[in-house]
Amino acid sequence: MKKLAGAFFLLLVFTACKFKANESKLPILGQRQAVTKTVNGKQVVDTVYQTIPDFKFVNQYGDTITQKSLKGNIYVADFFFTTCPSICPIMHRNMLKVYNDFKNVPDFKIISHTIDPKHDSVAVLKKYADKLGISGNNWWLLQGKKEDTYTLGQKHYLVAVMQDNGAPGGYVHQGWFVLVDKQRRIRGYYDGTKEEEVAKMMDDIKTLRGEVNTEIAQ
Amino acid sequence: MKLKVIGGIVVLLSVLIAACQSDADQEFKRYYTGGAAIYKQKCQNCHGNNGEGLTSLIPPLTDTTFLKKNKNYLACIVRNGINERVLTINSKAYEGPMPANTDLAPIQIAKVLTFVTNSFGNKQGVITVDVVEKDLEGCQ
User: Fold this and answer.
1) Structural domains in chain B?
2) What is the 3-state secondary structure (H, E, C) of B38-93?
3) A168–B56 C-beta distance less than 8 A
């Protein structure tokens, strides 16, 4: 009987934790700045969050993609290359789950930037997409100037991407999935090579979609 | 009391079974468990936890007929990888390259092949280091 009571107590503790976790809201990540503005003649201090700047790339269909194409969407970004022998297959195996789960969600997209645009032409990306089994416009594979992609990765998504002929496949990169909200702010980093982190990301996407956009839009 | 007797019998039985295992069984287990570790390190990223591959990009390791038919070619694939060769697996064509694993010794290739050809629905038995060494000589 005592044991039973103990078990019941433990169960209670766990449920308590769970309830708490459900209430959480996603943090806003990246650098931030306090700015003093004058509103109606009064000095107001406001926080300016880091946002993903404008960019211009081409997707697997040959269409030009800019931040405008992503307007009104929550999105997940990652970096890969089609001939990557190390972590990309596992990242995209996990991303495929995300794609299939959110295929019919109107305000969600996935963008994968190739870090090897020399090899990964539009035609190569289209073939990769076909073989991966993705179609439509929910998951774009983006190609563009190498410097643009690298700057975007290093300075704005804050993930490591670089060329290194000593690394497997010739590039160093990390398997991060970066979650970005409709105001272009970074809301989460997830290790795309780990199933449990990707599962958490899927939960967080739902949380983010439920968030009311009352916060300061910039 | 009853529990203790049953427990005792179970322990005794398992000791007996373990002792009765033939050398061949033990050899298989050595190869298989060693191979599982190598698989995890070298193959799993692409071919998956369950040998499922990745859509049409990376072939699965579940085509028992392919693995049987190409039994003597498998060591070459593991060591040298694949370039420009299209493999038909589960009646689907796979054309991407596979990286070479020149750092694997024949014994390691034998172990990982024993693991693969006895997992994911395959059951070929042990692939010994002698067989692998012979197969590697025939690589093109």
Assistant:
1) 23-137 (1.10.760.10)
2) HHHHHCHHHHCCCCCCECCCECCCCCHHHHHHCHHHHHHHHHHCECCCCEEECCEE
3) no
